[in-house]
TrEMBL record:
Active site: 46
Pfam families: PhzC-PhzF
Organism: Roseibium aggregatum
GO molecular function: isomerase activity
Gene Ontology CC: cytoplasm
Name of this protein: PhzF family phenazine biosynthesis protein
Family as reported in the entry's similarity comment: Belongs to the PhzF family.
InterPro entries: Phenazine_PhzF-like
Length: 303
């Protein structure tokens, strides 16, 4: 049987940068085992499998797999799939075209606003389906530093300290003092479980306030060796959970806060993630993730 697929580069306006994503269309009839094997075959950070919508209010259902596990929610698959679904619907556009794409994921229903443009990268922004929440304590700084091949003195800046938050999957958020420390970070696999193995969630999002661009607020890297992702070029679900970190340590006032995050530069896959946080009455009211994507390939699977 022939099944269409597409490859998109997400959180970038330039092909062969950002975070590559495989989206398999016509996924009906695939078993869980087949989907996991296909994701391993593509060997990208995530592969999406698209199914018909469960009700008329949805555009499609989707499932997300890393090379090793299935995820209930992820950011760059949401942005990339929304843009692909809008492109499938409208085709080549000659004027700017707005669209709403509603995707059913395991975490719930995710609404995405998509803007298609002629001869330009499309943009999608989605409402994060649940607000970030704390995900438990972290290990001590010495173990965290050892797991990242850093010194304990590299960890932390201002009042930022290691923390854990989640929107769907949980992440360890590790602040480091500057871009130099961030560039030196790399997983020490022999120490990874000691530093990040608490509760079976070992993804480390390492960030600093120093950035490459004056338009950015943070520079980040994401290491997830337990999921088969040595380093991820762009991680939208982590950026969504990072809203909890920013609010906790930076004590955001009421209003809408636009926060741009750089990621993937050390890999040669520069990515830009737009994070928006709405604060009302001293609390977090809504979180949105946005970014561009480019379509780089189409093909067929015979599975």
């Amino acid at each position: 049987m022939s099944r269409r697929y597409a490859i998109l580069d997400v959180f970038t306006n330039t092909s062969l940068s950002g975070n590559p994503l495989a989206v398999v269309l016509d996924s009906e009839g695939l078993s869980d085992e087949q989907m996991q094997k296909i994701a391993g075959e593509f060997n990208l950070s995530e592969t999406v499998f698209v199914f018909p919508p469960e009700n008329p209010g949805q555009s499609a259902s989707m499932r997300i797999f890393t090379p090793k596990v299935e995820l209930p929610f992820a950011g760059h698959p949401t942005v990339g799939t929304a843009i692909l679904m809008a492109t499938e619907r409208f085709g080549e556009v000659t004027v700017e075209q707005d669209s709403v794409v509603v995707l059913k994921q395991k975490i719930g229903t995710v609404r995405c606003a998509v803007i298609l443009k002629e001869n330009a990268a499309a943009f999608a922004e989605f409402d994060v389906p649940s607000l970030p929440e704390p995900a438990g304590p972290t290990q001590n700084v010495e173990l965290i530093a050892a797991a990242l091949n850093l010194e304990p003195s590299d960890i932390g800046f201002e009042n930022h300290a290691p923390s854990r938050f989640r929107v769907g999957p949980s992440f360890h958020f590790i602040p480091v003092r500057d871009l130099d420390a961030l560039a030196r970070a790399r997983p020490a696999l022999s120490m990874w479980q000691a530093g990040f193995g608490k509760d079976g969630h070992g993804d480390a999002y390492v960030y600093c306030r120093e950035t490459r661009s004056h338009d950015s607020a943070f520079h980040a890297r994401l290491f997830a060796p337990d999921m088969g992702i040595p380093e991820d070029p762009a991680t939208g679900s982590a950026a969504a959970a990072f809203a909890g970190v920013v609010n906790y340590y930076d004590d955001l006032p009421n209003g809408t806060h636009h926060i741009r995050i750089e990621q993937g530069f050390e890999m040669g896959r520069p990515s830009i993630i737009d994070l928006e946080i709405d604060m009302e009455n001293g609390g977090m009211h809504a979180v949105r993730i946005g970014g561009q994507a480019t379509l780089v390939a189409r093909g067929e699977l015979f599975v």
